[in-house]
Amino acid sequence: MATQLSHVAQQDQRSQFHPFTSINDLKAEGPTVMASGSGVRVRDVNGKEYLDGMAGLWCVNLGYGRQEICDAIAQQSQRLSFFHTFNGMSSDVVAECSEALLARAPVPMSRVFFGASGSDANETQLKLIWVYNNLRGKPEKKKIIARWNAYHGSGVATASLTGLPGMHTLFDLPKGPILHVSAPNYYRNAPDGMSERDFSRQLAKELEALIEREGPDTIAAFFVEAVMGAGGLIPPPEGYFEEITPILKKHDILLVADEVVSGFGRLGTYWGSQTYGYEPDLITSAKGVTSGYFPMSAVFISPKVWDVIEAGADKVGVFGHGYTYSAHPVGAAAALAALKLIDDLKVVENVADVGPYMMQSLRDRLGQHPHVGDIRGKGLMLGIELMQDRGTKQTFPMANRTGRQVLKAAAERGLITRALGDTLVFAPPLIISRTEVDEIVDKFALAVDDVL
Ligand code: PLP
């Protein structure tokens, strides 16, 4: 992106160890350093403007520089900059935020547990699930099933849960009681001619076979993203959740909805589970809860799980889990402002309108391109898979190279996208207008033409 490295880019390059970044690429190209943002746009230190087609990392749902959230953060920082929630302590704004979140849950929920990231929230989920089964007198029921290509975080346990081998190798992660089943990738993995519904049945059979092989009494929970994000933007095939959920119920297995990306409107309903009609026992949320203005996560605990924990209170004693920044008052203030804006600005309704418009525009513009294999997604979570030959679904010989080239060409044209291998992804701020979507599609189509 930047050809001549600015002073700050050099500073960054020699001092920061970047997450999820190729050390070689960073050395060769230097970082792109942002300096400001407003609405759907950000500006780098050289003054170049970009339309942020990724809302940061699928999180700045309400756009940059939103005055109401900035004011809420500033005022809360002055009034009570920190207080904790250990040992029964709390703060007024946290109490209000907890209730506001429960009021927005897709199904009745009993409690929220706060953290600072999606990863720590999923670590909390694992502990809750294990406590739940210990208290129910089912100490063997501890294994967790996730899916290949899932992304559930970067912690030691949550990276194991994540179904991306690149996050397992080299890190010596303890395998733990974690199992994976196939990703519901219809485009890539369904046999030729098989319907989506039949593919869903096949995936459900695979899941049930694994449960039976391992023993249902050993399986505690199944983790799902509504649409898989970081693992390649994979929406479920038709009927997927309808096929899966009865199996989980039959074998007394908890359904954990990881709504870190899909929560708070991204798919055109408030929660991803509402788009696909399933009822989670536990929900993980983060990112959009503060629109990325403050690091915060919230785990939602259903009555089914909470009642067991509450009934076991004597055994539990002091619940031995939590983070210094669990329920940070400044985060709670940011969340309250963000939740109000989601309602006031009719953000979910906007996604329900603009999402299908963006999908159609991408299909109209790129659907026949010889190197565009698949355009997929839901709401404002869309992916375009590039390939050598769309007819045979032949991928490019060097994985990731073409995707990165298109990403760079788009950046040259002032558009931020993300390359997950050769799938380019869009998850723009949810307040985006149709005109701004037109700009994304124009710039992106030109970037594809620049490279292919
Ligand atoms: N779960 C999902 C579905 C995610 O996409 C992410 C991050 O992108 C996480 C969990 C982890 O969140 P964090 O990066 O805040 O730890």
From TrEMBL:
Xref: InterPro entries: Aminotrans_3, Aminotrans_3_PPA_site, PyrdxlP-dep_Trfase, PyrdxlP-dep_Trfase_major, PyrdxlP-dep_Trfase_small
Keywords: Aminotransferase, Pyridoxal phosphate, Transferase
Single GO MF annotation: transaminase activity
Cofactor(s) named in the record: pyridoxal 5'-phosphate
Pfam families recorded: Aminotran_3
Family per similarity comment: Belongs to the class-III pyridoxal-phosphate-dependent aminotransferase family.
PANTHER family for the chain: AMINOTRANSFERASE, AMINOTRANSFERASE CLASS-III
The name this protein goes by in its record: Aspartate aminotransferase family protein
Organism of this sequence: Sphingosinicella microcystinivorans
